Each structure stands twice: as C-alpha cells, then as structure tokens.
Amino acid sequence: MSGIPSTQHAVQIVGVDQIEINPAKPVDAVGPQQLLLKVEACGICFSDTKLLHAFDTHPRKSDIVSGLTPEQLAEISSYRPNLEPTVPGHEPVGRIVAVGDQVSHFAVGDRVLVQADWKHLRTVRSNGAFGYNFEGALQEYVIIDERCVVSPDGEKFLLPVADGPSAAAVGLIEPWATVEAAYAFPERRAPKTGGSFLIVAEQGADVSGAESLATQAQSRLTVVAPDALDSLGDERFDDIVYFGADADVLDALGDRLGLHSLLNVVLGGRTISRAVRVDVGRVHYDYIRYCGTSGNDPAEGYAWIPETGNLRAGDAMAIIGAAGPMGLMHMMRAVTLGTEGVRVASVDATDLNDDRLAHLAAEIDPVAAEQGVPVRYVNTASTPLEPGYDYVSCMVPVPALVAQAAALTAPGGIVNAFAGIPAGTYGEVDLQHIVADHVYLLGTSGSDVSDMATVLRKIEAGVIDTTVSLDAVCGIAGFPEAIQSVMDRTSGGKIMVFPSLPDQGLVRLQDLAEKLPHVAEKMVGGRWTKAAEDALLGR
C-alpha cells in the first residue's frame, strides 16, 4: 500500500473505563473483500461513554451470531468482540485509499459517510456496529469489510459525500440522524405476525379477545394465571396481554418482554395502585413498549399506538436537558418542522444551568423567530415544569427524569426517552397514567441510512446547518479530555476529532482566537467553515 504507513495513532478502549492512546497501532493489510478508510474526522458521542463504561457487556460489543460465519469474521482484522480491545468512534467521514480485488461497490478515492449500525449482522441483543464490535474511526486508518457495509438486500452503509462540505459538517450528520430516527421510527400497532403471545389472566377472565388477536397474527399462544409465571422459566414474549392491575405482576411481566415487544394492560375498570418498575434502558435499546385500555378489549390497547414517534402539528413540547449537544439538535428539528408542514405550538427547553440555556438561546432564537415558533428557556432548579405537554423528550440518562417526563405529558401525548440508559436500569413509572390516558413511552437507538439521507436533504435545502452543534475540535491527544467533558456534560456542543493531528489537544471554538488564531480568522459568524478546517489541517 504505497504511501500508507505501517503504524498509526489510535484511541483504544481496552477494558471497563480504560482508555489507551496507542502511538504505534498497526495499519492492517487489506483483504480481498475489504477497503481501507483514511479518516478525515470523527465526532465523539455520549454513546462512546456507554461503551467505555460497559465494554464487553455492551450489547453491541458481543459476538456476531448471524449474518457472517465465524470463518468470515476471522478474515476481518477489525472485528473485536467481547474483551478484545477496540477503537471507538462511529460518527466519521473519510476517504477510501485502498480496496481488495473482490470489492465491487466502492473504489479508491470515494469520500464516504459511515452509517454505523450494521443491522444485518446480529448479536444476541442488538446488532453489529462500527466503533463497537468492529473497530471505529478514532484512528488514522480503519479496515472495513464490504460484507459489513453492503447488506444481503443491497443496502449500503457507506454513503457517498461530495468534496465540498467540511469533514466536520459531514461527520456531524450521524448524530443529527439519530435525532431524526428518534421521531421517524415506525411503531408496531398490532401483535407480531408469527410471534410469541402470552396471555396472563385470573381464572374465569374473558380472554377471547386476546385469543382472537393471537389467532389473527398466527402467534404461538401461551395462557397462564399470574401466580404461574415462574413455570415459564426464562422465556420472553413478543406480545403480552395482561388482564388485571396488580403492580407486582406488572413488575414481573416487564422482564418477560423480548426485543421490540409490547405489554398490553387490560384494566377492565381497575386501577394500578402504585408506580410500576419499568426497565427504561430497554425502552431505549430493546424497543420495549407499554400500551393498554381501561376497558376489556385488548384491541383497544393496540389501536391508540402512534404510527411513529413524530411531533404533530400544534404540539406543545418540552425538552428535558435541552442545553446539551443532542438537546440542541432536538430543538433545531422541532422549530424547523414547519418547513415540512408540521408546525409545533411551542417548545420549552430545560436545563439546570443558566449559562448553558443562554448559549442554547443564542443558537435557537433566530431560527425560532423566523419559523414563528415560541420558545421558552426554563431552569428547572428554580422553576419546575407544570404538567400538560403533548410531547416530552428527555435528553438526560436518569430513570427518574423519564418517569417525570411521563407525568408531565397530557392525555394522548408522547414521551421520547432519547437519552440512552443501560438496559437493566429501572424507573418507577405511573403506568396507570400511560394506559388510561394513552400516553406513549418510546425510545430508539442509532439510525438508518434513510435518516442520514433525510439530514443530508435538510442540509442541502438550507433548513439546518449541522456545524451549529460543533463546540470543540481536537486530535488524538485531545481525546481523553474530550471524552471527560462529554461525561461531565461540560461541553457546549459536539466535539470533532481529526485523527491526522496526533498531537493536537482539545480547543473549544470560543478559544480559537487565543489558541489557534490562524484557524479562528477563517470562521464566519462564530461558525466552523471549510476554510477553518483547512487551516487547522495545515492545507
């Protein structure tokens, strides 16, 4: 590989909360079905901190169990499951500098954006992912196997990118796409066809409606009494219909939900006497959902589930923790939805820090005014929110705040648990409110190629500028400080790493004039530009 070094600088996660900066990581040889990507830039994400804290227990760090054979996986030097050290970084843009002789979809010279969720490659609880069980982009070069980025049905997970936009602008598409996915993901509104269906009911209860639903869906049906749940062993189900209101039973049934599963609570006029333990981490990562009815027909419980988690015209919205990097993106999406014919009534943004709220207001207010969307900034340390919102999005990974978001939501509203909380983390949620008032609690993880395409379209149309969320830049040497600022939530926005600058420390854009004046003079209106990036890289 002419012109390509034999070693490189790289960030590696080698264990739980263990980061190493490797100045001499080998640049692996390119196999017949592989390509070598030279990384231009890669964003740091809060999800990187989850990988750092969980390491081998993260659902995307485990073995691939389908999609590629063990023999094929052994051919991929960047496949690093379980306890093997890995390179994080799943928000990159780069250029292909070498390809194997069997690569057919990509060529040397292609500039590409990586969609990191390779959903045709399954782990036990999730999917294969770039920057997790496959090495990511916080290194100068990374091997990618074509079988990972082209699915069997032809979907490509490397998106072509023109040469014009800065690497930072393109690298920021991925986090914006996860925001898009949080609202666009299609929700299941009926029993899963061919799935496993559990009915839990006291003896004598009329379960014929649930049995009919199971029959229509050609489900594998199991019927038990509440006191017989232990007889099911560790089995989980795609759909659970519970005729009753016992909070202890509901606590137990939540743990019976499989991936992308629904618990439909048929109250039959009864009332759940206390808050229910809900695995809010699994709402986000495993897409578990709760629905139900105050009456006796389980079909009513499915009927009110929204088609997607999108905002609706006239919604009064609150964003909890809005002053962070991801909150800014949610805010910008909400106030610009009018360009797509969906104008919200208002948006309330919360944080516990007035300075962070002021920074958010400086970015959002001009756009909100142009779009005609009223925005209010609330420091909830002194001014608690009042219930009655049609839509509440939670940016803070705290179960109690997700539960609070549900309590703030009006009948018929939606709660978006966007912040990733580790699976197995429970919150005490008012399930009576959710079922009786048709409040839908959802969460999503990652994004699809279509979400990235949507963000690209918005950039090209001038609806959004992704660099509005850029707060700082660094090279490999600045990564430890950068990831710490993400964990401490002291960053005012996204941080972009340029791996070709091994010795560059972390510099916030507001400090560029002092620390890197030759870069600062190329900024326009405090925003990052291609010229500023060229100056940083010494072009």
**Category by helix and strand content:** alpha/beta
Computed CA radius of gyration, to the nearest angstrom: 24 Å
Instruction: Look up the CATH topology of the largest domain.
Output: Quinone Oxidoreductase, Chain A, domain 1
Strand portion: 25-35%
How many DSSP-defined strands? 25
pLDDT averaged over residues: 95
Distance between the ends: 23 Å
Low-confidence stretches: none
Supply the CATH class of the largest domain.
Alpha Beta
Per DSSP, the total helix count is 18
Tally of domains: 3
Shape category: globular
Q: Specify the CATH homologous superfamily of the largest domain.
A: Medium-chain alcohol dehydrogenases, catalytic domain
Using the 3D structure, state the CATH architecture of the largest domain: Alpha-Beta Complex
Tell me about the largest β-sheet: 8 strands, mixed
Specify the helix fraction band.
25-40%
Short key terms for the protein model shown above:
539 residues, alpha/beta, Quinone Oxidoreductase, Chain A, domain 1, Rossmann fold, 3 domains, 6-stranded parallel beta sheet, globular
Word description of this protein:
With 539 residues, the protein is of the alpha/beta class. The chain has three domains: 7-180 and 450-510, Medium-chain alcohol dehydrogenases, catalytic domain (Quinone Oxidoreductase, Chain A, domain 1, Alpha-Beta Complex); 196-303, NAD(P)-binding Rossmann-like Domain (Rossmann fold); 316-421, NAD(P)-binding Rossmann-like Domain (Rossmann fold, 3-Layer(aba) Sandwich). Helix content is 27%, strand content 27%. The chain has 18 helices and 25 strands. The longest helix has 18 residues, at 354-371. It is globular and about 75 Å long.
